[in-house]
Amino acid sequence: MLAVLFGAFGLKAGASATLLIEEPYGKLGFFTATGHSAVYLSGVCAQTPLILRRCAPGESGIVLSRYDGVGGYDWIAIPLVPYFYAVERAEDVPLFADAKIVAFLRDRYRRKYLKDVVPDLPNGETPGGNWYELVGSSYDRTTYGFEIETSTEQDEALILKFNSSPNRSHFHLLTRNCANFAKDVINLYQPKALRRSYVADLGISTPKQMAKTLVQFSASHPELRLSRFIIPQVPGNIARSKAIHGVVESFFKSKKYIVPSGVASPIFAGCVARRLFR
Questions:
Q1: Nearest Cα to 178, choosing from 264, 39, 18, 65?
Q2: 6 — alpha (psi -120 to 50), left (phi > 0) or beta?
Q3: pLDDT digits (tens, 9 = 90+) for 79-115
Protein backbone atom coordinates (compact mmCIF):
# COMPACT_ATOMS: atom_id res chain seq x y z
CA MET A 1 0.00 0.00 0.00
CA LEU A 2 2.75 2.46 0.92
CA ALA A 3 4.78 1.38 -2.07
CA VAL A 4 1.83 2.43 -4.21
CA LEU A 5 1.60 5.80 -2.45
CA PHE A 6 5.24 6.81 -2.68
CA GLY A 7 5.79 5.12 -6.02
CA ALA A 8 2.87 7.02 -7.52
CA PHE A 9 4.00 10.40 -6.23
CA GLY A 10 7.62 9.75 -7.16
CA LEU A 11 7.09 9.52 -10.90
CA LYS A 12 8.25 13.07 -11.66
CA ALA A 13 11.88 14.05 -11.17
CA GLY A 14 10.99 17.71 -10.53
CA ALA A 15 7.97 19.47 -9.07
CA SER A 16 4.48 18.29 -9.91
CA ALA A 17 0.81 18.98 -9.29
CA THR A 18 -1.61 16.08 -8.87
CA LEU A 19 -5.36 16.32 -9.19
CA LEU A 20 -6.83 13.93 -6.60
CA ILE A 21 -10.26 12.47 -7.26
CA GLU A 22 -11.69 10.63 -4.25
CA GLU A 23 -14.56 8.16 -4.29
CA PRO A 24 -17.76 8.92 -2.35
CA TYR A 25 -18.52 6.98 0.82
CA GLY A 26 -21.16 6.59 3.49
CA LYS A 27 -24.68 7.98 3.50
CA LEU A 28 -23.98 11.67 3.36
CA GLY A 29 -27.09 12.48 1.35
CA PHE A 30 -27.52 14.61 -1.71
CA PHE A 31 -24.61 14.75 -4.21
CA THR A 32 -22.43 12.17 -2.43
CA ALA A 33 -21.96 10.24 -5.67
CA THR A 34 -19.76 12.99 -7.06
CA GLY A 35 -16.97 12.33 -4.54
CA HIS A 36 -14.26 14.82 -3.53
CA SER A 37 -11.41 16.72 -5.22
CA ALA A 38 -8.11 17.94 -3.80
CA VAL A 39 -4.66 18.83 -5.15
CA TYR A 40 -1.28 17.43 -4.14
CA LEU A 41 1.75 19.68 -4.73
CA SER A 42 5.13 17.99 -4.43
CA GLY A 43 7.16 21.21 -4.31
CA VAL A 44 4.99 23.14 -1.85
CA CYS A 45 5.00 22.54 1.91
CA ALA A 46 3.25 24.06 4.91
CA GLN A 47 4.77 26.29 7.57
CA THR A 48 1.37 25.92 9.25
CA PRO A 49 -1.89 24.47 7.89
CA LEU A 50 -2.68 28.03 6.72
CA ILE A 51 0.73 29.30 5.51
CA LEU A 52 2.60 27.81 2.54
CA ARG A 53 6.33 27.71 1.77
CA ARG A 54 8.76 25.99 -0.57
CA CYS A 55 9.69 22.44 0.40
CA ALA A 56 13.13 21.68 1.80
CA PRO A 57 15.10 18.70 0.43
CA GLY A 58 13.51 15.42 1.52
CA GLU A 59 10.05 16.86 2.20
CA SER A 60 7.13 15.31 0.34
CA GLY A 61 4.77 18.25 -0.22
CA ILE A 62 1.18 18.92 0.79
CA VAL A 63 -2.42 18.26 -0.14
CA LEU A 64 -4.60 21.36 -0.50
CA SER A 65 -8.33 20.87 -0.11
CA ARG A 66 -11.57 22.72 0.57
CA TYR A 67 -14.14 21.42 3.04
CA ASP A 68 -17.18 23.24 4.37
CA GLY A 69 -17.20 24.29 8.00
CA VAL A 70 -13.55 23.76 9.00
CA GLY A 71 -12.63 26.71 11.20
CA GLY A 72 -14.21 29.12 8.75
CA TYR A 73 -11.27 28.68 6.37
CA ASP A 74 -11.46 28.23 2.60
CA TRP A 75 -8.52 25.82 2.36
CA ILE A 76 -6.26 23.79 4.62
CA ALA A 77 -2.80 22.37 3.81
CA ILE A 78 -1.94 18.89 5.13
CA PRO A 79 1.32 16.96 4.54
CA LEU A 80 1.07 13.98 2.19
CA VAL A 81 1.25 11.00 4.57
CA PRO A 82 -1.08 12.47 7.25
CA TYR A 83 -3.61 13.43 4.60
CA PHE A 84 -3.97 9.83 3.48
CA TYR A 85 -3.25 7.96 6.72
CA ALA A 86 -3.46 10.35 9.75
CA VAL A 87 0.08 9.44 10.87
CA GLU A 88 3.38 11.25 10.39
CA ARG A 89 5.57 8.31 9.41
CA ALA A 90 4.89 5.75 6.72
CA GLU A 91 5.91 2.89 9.00
CA ASP A 92 3.08 3.79 11.41
CA VAL A 93 0.28 3.19 8.92
CA PRO A 94 -1.92 0.29 10.14
CA LEU A 95 -2.34 -2.63 7.76
CA PHE A 96 -5.96 -3.08 8.88
CA ALA A 97 -8.24 -0.33 10.15
CA ASP A 98 -11.50 -0.12 12.05
CA ALA A 99 -13.52 2.91 13.11
CA LYS A 100 -11.97 3.16 16.59
CA ILE A 101 -8.39 3.06 15.30
CA VAL A 102 -9.13 5.66 12.64
CA ALA A 103 -10.89 8.00 15.10
CA PHE A 104 -7.93 7.73 17.49
CA LEU A 105 -5.33 8.47 14.78
CA ARG A 106 -7.27 11.43 13.45
CA ASP A 107 -7.85 13.01 16.82
CA ARG A 108 -4.23 12.48 17.88
CA TYR A 109 -3.06 14.30 14.75
CA ARG A 110 -5.61 17.08 15.29
CA ARG A 111 -4.53 17.65 18.87
CA LYS A 112 -0.88 17.89 17.81
CA TYR A 113 -1.13 19.95 14.61
CA LEU A 114 -4.63 21.30 14.01
CA LYS A 115 -5.84 22.65 17.36
CA ASP A 116 -5.57 26.25 16.15
CA VAL A 117 -7.85 25.39 13.24
CA VAL A 118 -10.06 22.80 14.96
CA PRO A 119 -9.92 23.40 18.75
CA ASP A 120 -11.25 21.12 21.45
CA LEU A 121 -14.76 21.55 22.73
CA PRO A 122 -15.07 23.54 25.99
CA ASN A 123 -15.05 20.26 27.93
CA GLY A 124 -11.85 19.14 26.19
CA GLU A 125 -13.52 16.56 23.99
CA THR A 126 -13.12 16.09 20.23
CA PRO A 127 -15.25 18.46 18.12
CA GLY A 128 -17.57 17.32 15.37
CA GLY A 129 -17.65 18.64 11.81
CA ASN A 130 -15.87 17.90 8.57
CA TRP A 131 -12.31 18.37 9.88
CA TYR A 132 -11.80 14.59 10.08
CA GLU A 133 -11.75 14.41 6.27
CA LEU A 134 -8.50 16.40 6.26
CA VAL A 135 -6.56 13.45 7.67
CA GLY A 136 -6.82 9.73 7.02
CA SER A 137 -8.63 9.97 3.69
CA SER A 138 -7.56 6.49 2.60
CA TYR A 139 -9.39 4.83 5.48
CA ASP A 140 -12.69 5.97 3.97
CA ARG A 141 -12.12 5.81 0.23
CA THR A 142 -10.03 5.06 -2.82
CA THR A 143 -8.27 7.97 -4.54
CA TYR A 144 -7.31 8.44 -8.19
CA GLY A 145 -4.35 10.68 -9.05
CA PHE A 146 -3.68 12.64 -12.25
CA GLU A 147 -0.18 14.12 -12.08
CA ILE A 148 1.43 16.75 -14.32
CA GLU A 149 4.84 18.38 -14.26
CA THR A 150 5.20 21.89 -12.87
CA SER A 151 8.05 24.33 -12.26
CA THR A 152 9.61 26.08 -9.28
CA GLU A 153 8.42 29.41 -10.64
CA GLN A 154 4.83 28.15 -10.79
CA ASP A 155 5.04 26.86 -7.21
CA GLU A 156 6.35 30.23 -6.03
CA ALA A 157 3.51 32.05 -7.78
CA LEU A 158 0.95 29.82 -6.08
CA ILE A 159 2.58 30.29 -2.66
CA LEU A 160 2.54 34.07 -3.08
CA LYS A 161 -1.11 34.08 -4.16
CA PHE A 162 -2.34 31.83 -1.37
CA ASN A 163 -0.33 33.50 1.39
CA SER A 164 -1.41 37.00 0.33
CA SER A 165 -5.12 36.28 -0.25
CA PRO A 166 -7.86 36.06 2.42
CA ASN A 167 -8.45 32.48 3.54
CA ARG A 168 -12.10 32.68 4.55
CA SER A 169 -14.76 30.20 3.55
CA HIS A 170 -17.57 31.10 1.17
CA PHE A 171 -18.39 27.49 0.44
CA HIS A 172 -21.39 26.80 -1.77
CA LEU A 173 -22.36 23.33 -2.91
CA LEU A 174 -23.12 24.42 -6.47
CA THR A 175 -20.65 27.24 -7.14
CA ARG A 176 -17.72 27.04 -4.67
CA ASN A 177 -17.28 23.37 -3.89
CA CYS A 178 -14.18 21.18 -3.67
CA ALA A 179 -14.02 20.68 -7.44
CA ASN A 180 -14.16 24.44 -8.04
CA PHE A 181 -11.19 24.77 -5.70
CA ALA A 182 -9.20 22.02 -7.44
CA LYS A 183 -10.01 23.59 -10.81
CA ASP A 184 -8.72 26.98 -9.67
CA VAL A 185 -5.48 25.50 -8.31
CA ILE A 186 -4.66 23.44 -11.41
CA ASN A 187 -5.59 26.36 -13.66
CA LEU A 188 -3.04 28.52 -11.84
CA TYR A 189 -0.42 26.14 -13.21
CA GLN A 190 -2.06 25.53 -16.58
CA PRO A 191 -4.65 28.19 -17.47
CA LYS A 192 -7.92 26.82 -18.86
CA ALA A 193 -6.82 23.21 -18.35
CA LEU A 194 -9.90 22.34 -16.28
CA ARG A 195 -13.44 23.36 -17.08
CA ARG A 196 -16.95 22.44 -16.04
CA SER A 197 -19.58 20.74 -18.20
CA TYR A 198 -23.06 22.12 -18.88
CA VAL A 199 -24.14 18.80 -20.39
CA ALA A 200 -22.92 16.22 -17.87
CA ASP A 201 -23.11 18.40 -14.75
CA LEU A 202 -25.45 21.30 -15.59
CA GLY A 203 -22.57 23.74 -15.13
CA ILE A 204 -21.61 22.47 -11.67
CA SER A 205 -17.92 21.64 -11.20
CA THR A 206 -17.46 17.95 -10.28
CA PRO A 207 -14.41 15.79 -9.58
CA LYS A 208 -15.09 13.45 -12.51
CA GLN A 209 -15.32 16.33 -14.97
CA MET A 210 -12.09 17.85 -13.63
CA ALA A 211 -10.23 14.60 -14.24
CA LYS A 212 -11.74 14.22 -17.70
CA THR A 213 -10.72 17.70 -18.81
CA LEU A 214 -7.19 17.38 -17.40
CA VAL A 215 -6.69 14.18 -19.39
CA GLN A 216 -8.00 15.90 -22.52
CA PHE A 217 -5.79 18.95 -21.96
CA SER A 218 -2.71 16.81 -21.36
CA ALA A 219 -3.29 14.92 -24.60
CA SER A 220 -2.56 18.14 -26.50
CA HIS A 221 0.24 19.12 -24.12
CA PRO A 222 2.54 16.06 -23.92
CA GLU A 223 5.24 18.15 -22.23
CA LEU A 224 3.17 17.88 -19.02
CA ARG A 225 3.88 14.13 -18.94
CA LEU A 226 0.54 13.19 -17.42
CA SER A 227 0.61 10.06 -15.28
CA ARG A 228 -2.27 8.29 -13.53
CA PHE A 229 -2.40 6.05 -10.50
CA ILE A 230 -4.65 4.73 -7.73
CA ILE A 231 -4.28 4.96 -3.95
CA PRO A 232 -6.48 2.13 -2.60
CA GLN A 233 -8.70 2.30 0.44
CA VAL A 234 -7.01 0.77 3.49
CA PRO A 235 -8.23 -2.77 4.22
CA GLY A 236 -10.54 -3.04 7.21
CA ASN A 237 -14.12 -3.34 8.36
CA ILE A 238 -14.98 0.23 7.32
CA ALA A 239 -17.50 0.24 4.45
CA ARG A 240 -15.95 0.39 1.00
CA SER A 241 -16.24 3.57 -1.04
CA LYS A 242 -18.31 3.74 -4.23
CA ALA A 243 -17.85 4.71 -7.86
CA ILE A 244 -17.64 8.38 -8.80
CA HIS A 245 -20.41 9.91 -10.93
CA GLY A 246 -21.25 13.26 -12.46
CA VAL A 247 -24.36 15.25 -11.51
CA VAL A 248 -26.75 14.04 -14.21
CA GLU A 249 -25.30 10.53 -14.01
CA SER A 250 -25.98 10.52 -10.26
CA PHE A 251 -29.64 11.28 -10.84
CA PHE A 252 -29.87 8.54 -13.43
CA LYS A 253 -28.46 6.15 -10.82
CA SER A 254 -30.81 7.37 -8.07
CA LYS A 255 -33.76 9.52 -9.14
CA LYS A 256 -34.95 9.71 -5.52
CA TYR A 257 -32.69 12.76 -5.14
CA ILE A 258 -35.02 14.84 -7.29
CA VAL A 259 -37.30 15.50 -4.30
CA PRO A 260 -34.64 16.70 -1.79
CA SER A 261 -32.93 18.73 -4.52
CA GLY A 262 -36.25 20.43 -5.22
CA VAL A 263 -36.25 21.72 -1.66
CA ALA A 264 -32.66 22.96 -1.94
CA SER A 265 -32.98 24.43 -5.44
CA PRO A 266 -36.24 24.15 -7.40
CA ILE A 267 -34.67 25.55 -10.58
CA PHE A 268 -31.77 23.09 -10.43
CA ALA A 269 -34.08 20.14 -9.75
CA GLY A 270 -36.33 21.17 -12.60
CA CYS A 271 -33.42 21.25 -15.03
CA VAL A 272 -32.30 17.76 -13.97
CA ALA A 273 -35.82 16.35 -14.06
CA ARG A 274 -36.37 17.73 -17.56
CA ARG A 275 -33.18 16.05 -18.75
CA LEU A 276 -34.02 12.74 -17.05
CA PHE A 277 -37.65 12.38 -17.94
CA ARG A 278 -38.02 14.08 -21.31
A1: 65
A2: alpha
A3: 999 999 999 999 999 999 999 999 999 999 999 999 9
